[in-house]
Amino acid sequence: MARHHATRRVGARRRLAPLLFALALGACGAEVAGLGPPVTAPAFETGSLRMADGARLPLREAAPDGPPRAQLLALHGMASHAGFFLAESAPPLVAGGLRVLAYDQRGHGNAPSRGIFAGEAALVSDAIAAIRLLRARDPGLPLFVIGESLGANVALLAADRLRATGETTLVDGWILLVPGLYTLDEMRPGRAGPLRLAIATMPRAGAGSGAPTLGVTDNHESMARAEADPLALRAIRADLVAGVLGMHGTSRATLHRCCAGPTLFLFGAQDGVTEEAATILALRTLPPGSQARTLLYPDGWHVLLRDLQRDTVARDILAFTGNPTAPPPSGTDRTGQAWLAQGRGFGMGR
After folding, report:
1. Of the residues 39, 163, 246, 275, which has the fewest C-beta atoms closer than 10 A?
2. Which H or E run includes 224?
3. Contact 43/25 with Cβ under 8 angstroms?
4. Listing from the earlier edge strand, what are the strands of the sheet with 70-75?
């Protein structure tokens, strides 16, 4: 009998071992991959961009049938990658005459440190290097930068850096698709509480993206493809989310001196991810007379170029790349102005 109980205890310990190991790993401190010391000059390589620290970021490109009228550097969102952006979001832009280039940002896709937060300095440095390389390769072709969610925050911070270094002429316009402008303290309690606990106790533990239930898009087929994509991040670590939320705060702090050139801030009124009140307060800090405009799409969600109404968004982007000062064909700049003035607008039409 004693031997039987001992065997059961050993078996229980063996079953618990993987769980205890996972908990021990998750309990380690938050991790930031960071930027390595410079060892080379940034450059194009076959199928990738080589960064100053030697990191190679896979590069994808989609070109129109004829000569492009402009080039568009795309910075994808959290948990995604360059190939998915080109497949799901870029086709109407390419059909409109744009050459779209995108690279896997660090921590994503096949880039180094997959699943780990790269750090703001590394992400922004990579974007600036890519901008400089593209402008140097095709100096006569207009260059625009588009960022989606996390990518929009990276773009916003890169624009602020280029403004500070006097390099604003490198980019002809900035297109920011739903940048995060809220912090953990401003998230709704039902989301902030569990995340705060995970960051404090198990920052390296991963959880599902929650995208199907967060109100990311009304395009369920695209969502299914994202969930099945082997290069997408399946389990998103708490410290990765914490790092991205930290970038929300630093991005927001740049708005009062925005912008480095003509800039569009695009949001969807059906978005279930973005914290509306904090976003409105942040956008209200944009200086009067700046080159920034806020567009609000009544039928848009969080990933505007994958939604069912993405053609409307694409037409506005194509118009912007043709004339960055002209009003968008959709008239959503007026909706955006009313949204900021009234202080609410999410959920309209539900």
Report:
1. 39
2. helix 220-228
3. no
4. 43-45, 48-50, 56-62, 98-103, 70-75, 143-148, 173-177, 263-268, 292-297
**Cβ-based neighbours of 188, under 8 Å, separated by 6 or more:** 275
Q: pLDDT digits over 110-145, tens only? A: 999 999 999 999 999 999 999 999 999 999 999 999
- Positive or negative: CA dihedral 180, 83, 296, 265: positive
**Cβ of 48: how many Cβ atoms within 10 Å?**
18
* Token output for 272: 């279930």
Residue 298's SS3 state is coil
Give the Cα separation of 239 and 32 in Å (integer).
8
Collapsing DSSP to helix, strand or coil, 105 comes out as coil
User: Span 31-342: which CATH code?
Assistant: 3.40.50.1820
Say which residues have a Cβ less than 8 Å from residue 259's Cβ, sequence separation at least 6.
159, 163, 174, 290, 291, 292
Please name the residue that has the structure tokens 């990765």.
240
| 342/346 Cα distance (integer angstroms) | 11
pLDDT tens, residue by residue, 279-296: 999 999 999 999 999 999
**Whose CA is closest to 83, among 48, 55, 109?**
109
Q: Quick one: tokens of 281?
A: 């307060």
Tokens representing 315 are 């037409």
Instruction: Give Dmax over CA atoms of the chain in angstroms.
Output: 84
Domain ranges of the chain: 31-342
Supply 122's token pair: 């590394």
- C-alpha pair distances (Å), 106 with each of 80, 110, 145, 257: 11, 8, 18, 27
Give the whole-angstrom CA distance, residue 338 versus residue 178.
17
Q: CA-CA distances (angstroms) from residue 141 to 93, 170, 255?
A: 16, 11, 28
Question: Letter for the amino acid at 241?
Answer: V
First to last CA, the chain: 64
Residue found by looking up tokens 């967060």 in the block: 214
What is the C-alpha to C-alpha distance for residues 274 and 226, in angstroms, rounded to an integer?
19
Query: Coil, helix or strand for 207?
Result: strand
